[in-house]
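## retry 2 of 3
previous attempt timed out at serialization; input unchanged, resubmitting
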Amino acid sequence: MALTSLITLVAAAALAATTQEPAPPAAAPSAVSAPATVYRTVTFQSGDGLEITADLYVGEVSSPQERSQRPFIVLFHQAGWSRGEYREIAPQLVLLGFDCLAVDQRSGGAVNDVVNATNARAVAAELPTRFTDAEQDMVAALAAVRRHLANGRTLVAWGSSYSSALVLRLAADHPELVDAWVAFAPGDYFEREGKPKDWIASAALRVTQPGFLTSARRERGNWEEIWDNLPSTPNEGRWYFLPETEGNHGSRALWARFEDSGAYWAALEPFLDHVYTLERPAPLVREQVEDDPFAASTQAPDQG
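## retry succeeded, writing output
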């Protein structure tokens, strides 16, 4: 695929920028301009038993075989926000041929009039809600989707800001749960939570899956070492996009309200096309019937 017109090559010299802690805008937007779609809100358990809320978006198909060929994307939000970050994005991904689950991690708040229900439960239970505390929620989401929704299907982990950094770490630590990844504005944001300053950059050395990385233009210094540490992959398996414009932090860069959102979509879509060419994983062999937290969720979703 010809990406030279879309992707800016990484400069050899490192920038002098300092990695900054990600934060939501001072005033989170309260409305989205999204195509009509359907979704169902579902719940499942995290590793410590906390109930996680997520929105499930599935496209219409004509047969189970067609469903099995659709890759699945698990979407994680940025700091201070919720699954509402993807109310506009997920329907577009469905139109592009993907099923999606937009997850509320316990480290978050609200955006687009969607309150983070997982965070509310964690706060009520007096559980910690740091970025690193949300990692177990992300693992649980990917594991549940792999077992119940994407068994034998290509599974993509997609993160925004702090969660995009954790997506890279999960790709390294749990390769059985991540076939490909998308990272909007990753960085080593976790030093104040007791992690080494290169916690993500060092994990990147072990990431072998294909992926797509992007950010606002000013944020390149946050992820340049991470990118440089990624092992090389064949067949155009790993790309990044740096906008010519100022751009935006996290997955909201794709929101239609931003004039440069089209450039992000134009860079991302060829990678999503590439995901369709990946060899699908072998289906899991189940020794017994298990409770499915997503049962009936793909049949009659709610109107969004």
